[in-house]
Amino acid sequence: MALQYVLLFAASGVSLPFAGLWFRAQGLSGAEIGTLLAAPMLGRLVTGPLLAVWADGFRTRRAPIAILGLVMALGYGGAGLVEGYAAWAVCWFVGATAAAALIPLSDVLTLKLAARHRFTFSLPRGAGSAAFVVANLGMGAILLRAPVDSIIVWITAASMGIAVLAALFLPPEPVGEGTALRGWDRFRGMGRLLADPVFMTTIFAVGAVQAAHAFQYGFSALLWQAQGHSAAVTGQLWAFGVVVEIALMWLFEPWRRKAGIGPWSLLAVGAVVSVLRWSAMTLAPPLWMLWPLQGLHALTFAATFLAGVQLVERLAPPHSHTAAQTLGSVLSAGVLIGLATAISGPLYDRFGAGGYWAMAGLSALGLIAALAVRTPLRRRRDFAAEATDAAPSPEPPL
């Protein structure tokens, strides 16, 4: 599973920070880049649930992962072979849609294996973050000497690696009891989650804080380039943010569980820090200040991500884990970040670094939603413990 995340984030470690540079080299404006990058994110409102239901129709969890890896390679690879905005938009939509669907599918498989084999989910997930660092540094160095098309070649190669790994080496973990679930059963489980206000408000809180990274993902490289920073420095700044993310996953996360710090607390801290981080970024800070601000990525991204995975797992019934993780991913890595990315292009064109103010506001909405569900989450956990006539879970409290 660590290798699965390594390949997955070796691809996103290049596509997230450097896609804007590649599309700019093709002559696209900031608004065009923002729209093109946002389209697959917004499309996840439809493609996310459909792909989740489709994935649960297989006997094993690795089968849809292998297929999506191949589709991802075809989409991203195709973008490097075509010309014109419409053709780029179609290819990028296909590749990015497959890549986004792979994340919740990988998370569910890892959570299942972690529970059975008693390893911490954050360990293989942290390996993916380490690959993100290597990808950032590697591509930053490559772009000093190689053409910008190296970005597409890298992403396509990593995508093919995912397809091969899943088909040949991932554990054959069954879906359900090892038989394909009926379509109606899959849709019904997702419908129950959509009708749960506590679940939906919780994933909105997580999604809002995650989506507030949209302006950073799409336009930080361009802003830093305008300030005179090279592509190599951009890669180093992104890498540093992920290094502290890895430290949180590998070092802080085991301590957090022992200390009894619950996932809701992680979410609240991440939301508060997110408001502060993006407010500071509106000042177009100098390089020395960018380093500590990038260090806050451990809290604005990693802490809220881990909080979201754990809260979703607790709120969803066992037979709906795939649907639940997908809905969380659809909202955070789809609808919300898609909307944020769509407005980021015009904000960048008009206000430059001032566009970060919108991200600070989105983080504040996430904080408000997190505060709203604190009491319902606690009541639900206490009720579950009473219903099973058991003591509260040894896991950290909410």
Notable characteristics:
398 residues; mainly alpha; Growth Hormone, Chain: A
Describe this structure in words.
- This protein is an all-alpha fold and 398 residues long.
- The chain has one domain: Up-down Bundle (Growth Hormone, Chain: A), CATH 1.20.1250.
- The chain is 80% helix and 0% strand.
- It is built from 15 helices and no strands.
- The radius of gyration is 20 Å and the shape is globular.
- About 3% of the residues have low confidence.
Write the layout of secondary structure elements.
Layout: H1 2-25, H2 30-55, H3 62-79, H4 85-117, H5 122-142, H6 150-168, H7 183-194, H8 197-211, H9 214-226, H10 231-259, H11 263-281, H12 287-295, H13 297-315, H14 321-351, H15 356-387
Helix pairs in contact: 1-4, 1-5, 1-6, 1-9, 2-4, 2-14, 3-4, 3-6, 4-14, 5-10, 8-13, 8-14, 8-15, 9-14, 10-12, 10-13, 11-13, 11-15, 13-14
In short:
With 398 residues, the protein is mainly α.
CATH topology: Growth Hormone, Chain: A
Q: How does the overall form come out from the CA principal axes?
A: globular
* Series of H and E elements: HHHHHHHHHHHHHHH
Count of helical segments?
Answer: 15
Class per helix and strand makeup = mainly alpha
Q: How many strand units?
A: 0
The percent of residues in helical segments reads over 70%
Strand proportion: under 5%
End-to-end distance? 27 Å
Computed CA radius of gyration, to the nearest angstrom:
20 Å
Mean of all residue-level pLDDT scores? 87
Query: How does the major sheet shape up?
Result: none
Highest-level CATH class = Mainly Alpha
In CATH, the homologous superfamily goes by the name MFS general substrate transporter like domains
